[in-house]
Design goal:
344 residues; mainly alpha; two-stranded antiparallel sheet; 72% helix; globular; transmembrane helix; cell membrane
Length: 344
């Protein structure tokens, strides 16, 4: 039907067509310069956060499985996970026609992403085997704080006084978990095995957190010009080659003692792929700030799983350290969320 409306020109009335298809509207738009507004359908609210929660649960279960398997080195577990990840990603690369090498000017960053990212995974698995599950998870979870500092150094991103405060809080939390004898005395409670293994796990988790932060900086440097599956491909291939060489040199290649452990190794690989997929989907439809806050559930789950499956209650020092780290990473997430909201 037709409805009259004024264009603001004195003594002149135009007619506007209502209730027609998109092509007709485009023709009218070209004739009368009408604004063309097409609303996108709204997605399911909270779906991105739900994906982030699922990825957190999967990663927490992986840590429990790594802790459960006996007699298999962390590097061998990493090699098996990388192998299955390669099998999963290869057909996806072929389907999306991205190639296996990527853009020529981005290959150095892809190699760095694969090498540093796979080392972060190996260090996390080793830390989980050497120290309480929750303590290793908390220290590894501190990587967002170091990401901000490394982005300031290498990418020239803005660094505020809050980033320095969050860093101090994070290091304080790590110290409370590590509890060096020269500060806390020689008699320590709540550690697994001897203190040597505890400090090895602490160093591995801390190094893994920094390696993960470096990985995020490299991914930021590449931006969106490289397909996500290509990044995962480099991560799996380089990690697999590195793990095979390292395990062979160390002579640690062993077949799991029982059939159950072999199934658990395969489950670790499958959950790793699912966790990364859900995390990627979450970041595609939700802002990074809320996703990072949802990842703090990982720390809570680590303490719950540690008590349920390993019958180990956390110490007050571990809880205090976890609180410092969670507050720091949450502060980083909230600050970036607020900054991006203001810009938008």
């Amino acid at each position: 039907y037709r409805r009259g409306f004024s264009t603001g020109v004195t003594g002149y009335e135009e007619e506007r067509l209502c209730g027609f298809d998109l092509e007709t509207y485009k023709e009218v738009k070209n004739a009368f310069s009408l604004p063309l507004i097409i609303k996108k359908p709204k997605g399911c609210p909270g779906l991105g956060l739900f994906y982030a929660f699922l990825s957190t649960v999967f990663f927490s279960i992986i840590a429990v499985l790594v802790k459960t398997i006996q007699g298999v080195h962390a590097i061998e577990i990493s090699a098996i996970r990388c192998f299955f990840q390669m099998l999963f990603v290869m057909p996806l690369l072929i389907y999306h026609k991205t190639g296996f090498l990527g853009p020529r000017d981005k290959r150095i960053f892809l190699v760095l992403r694969g090498f540093i990212g796979s080392n972060a995974m190996i260090l996390l698995f080793y830390a989980v085997q050497q120290m309480p599950l929750a303590d290793a998870t908390v220290i590894m979870f501190s990587n967002p704080v170091f990401t901000s500092l490394l982005a300031w150094i290498f990418l020239k991103e803005r660094c505020t006084i809050w980033d320095c405060v969050f860093t101090v809080f994070t290091i304080t939390g790590v110290i409370l978990i590590a509890r060096p004898p020269f500060l806390f005395g020689g008699h320590l409670r709540g550690i697994e095995g001897n203190y040597t293994n505890h400090i090895k796990g602490t160093i591995a988790a801390f190094a893994g957190a920094i390696a993960a932060a470096f990985t995020f900086v490299v991914l930021r440097k590449m931006g969106k010009s490289v397909h996500y599956y290509l990044s995962v491909w480099y991560y799996a291939v380089i990690g697999f080659i590195e793990c095979i060489i390292t395990v062979s040199v160390l002579g640690e290649w062993k077949i799991p003692f029982c059939g159950r452990d072999r199934w658990l190794l395969m489950l670790i690989a499958v959950l790793g792929i699912a966790g990364q997929s859900f995390l990627t989907k979450a970041l595609q439809i939700e802002k990074a700030g809320p996703v990072a806050l949802m990842r703090t559930v990982d720390v809570v789950l680590a303490f719950i799983f540690q008590f349920i499956f390993f019958n180990r209650a956390p110490t007050l020092w571990s809880l205090g350290g976890a609180l410092c780290v969670v507050l720091s990473t949450s502060g980083v997430a909230v600050r970036k969320w607020y900054s991006s909201s203001r810009k938008s």
